[in-house]
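FIELD: query
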Amino acid sequence: TSEMLQKICIRNLVRKYCQGVSAERKVQLQQKVVASAVFRGKKEGYLQSINQPFMDTRLKENDINPKVLQLIHGEKIKYVTPVIKYDRNGFKARDRLLVLTQSSAYVVEMAKVKQKIDYATLKGISTSNLSDGIVVIHVPEDNKQKGDVILQCEHIFETITKLCMLANKQNLVKVVQGSLQFRIGSGKEGTMVFTAGQEPQVFKAKNGQLTVV
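FIELD: result
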């Protein structure tokens, strides 16, 4: 009888807790569960991120240029964050915004949409096992896409979790070690090398590879 009562008591406590969880708290817990499945034991810095709540967005809708809002009219904006985009040729760093809607990801420059990625066509999301904030969004080889997107995000765990959940492609997130391949366009591929060092850096090495320290 005692064992049965203990089980009933525990079930009752769990029920009360679940009923008392707010909608905002439930969303937060769902995101953290996905982040755990993707990053736990795989990427440096994950443990330190656990107690940091994910923000709904890093920028408000009114922080986006009105011309861009017109271009993505009809799609509900779910998340916006500043990013650094690295060109596929030459790897020059450029300030951009990553705008995630219900159906697509947009890389935005001021009043221009530089690239649109429909979640349905997204082929994968890659990041390294080190503490850098690099994420590569892999896109299909077609005339609509210029090539894979190389971004650096300050809130890497939050950004990737939001992206893979909106795209419903958690299983396509890869945490790689050493290096990864990305598509430049026109059938060409590039290599990104990850290494540990004294200071964080992202630069084009003499061999032409993008090196992330």
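FIELD: remark
The first helix runs from residue 2 to 20.
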